[in-house]
């Protein structure tokens, strides 16, 4: 510690430090005004009332309405992002690509892997010893059990996910 020297290992420096700490604490505590408090009868502290105002609202008002598509109809401008509800892709703190039903029909996609082939960051394969789809998203493996439907985990089929079951 700066400015305090301990002499002969007897703890004199600690006592001096403690004295300085208590003195500065007393100075700081005396400098803080207590203007929000009023003393009532019997020495009780009376605080001023707190008024809270606001409006209630549904955090997911458009849960059933799909986000609008860009011109061409293949990719949507937003997505249903779990607990956040339907959001524009510019309003979420992560990268989102939302493919439309029109793209799935034009591509004649049968499984989720067929749709995700459109994303260069996703690679699909099958699991070991079974017929389950395994996705590798930017290097991280994602099993079929990790897929969410409307923000709920465990709702997708465990094996190959048909496009119809995820909509």
In short:
This protein has 167 residues and is α+β, with helices and mostly antiparallel strands. It has helices at residues 12-31, 101-107, 112-116, 163-166, and strands spanning 37-39, 45-47, 78-80, 86-88, 122-126, 133-137, 140-143, 148-149, 152-153.
Give a description of the structure.
The chain is of the alpha+beta class and 167 residues long. Helix content is 22%, strand content 18%. The protein contains four helices and nine strands. Strands 5-6-7 form a three-stranded antiparallel β-sheet, with no helix packed on it. The chain has a two-stranded antiparallel ribbon with strand order 1-2. It has a two-stranded antiparallel sheet with strand order 3-4. It is elongated.
Blueprint of the fold:
Layout: H1 12-31, E1 37-39, E2 45-47, E3 78-80, E4 86-88, H2 101-107, H3 112-116, E5 122-126, E6 133-137, E7 140-143, E8 148-149, E9 152-153, H4 163-166
Antiparallel strand pairs: 1-2, 3-4, 5-6, 6-7, 8-9
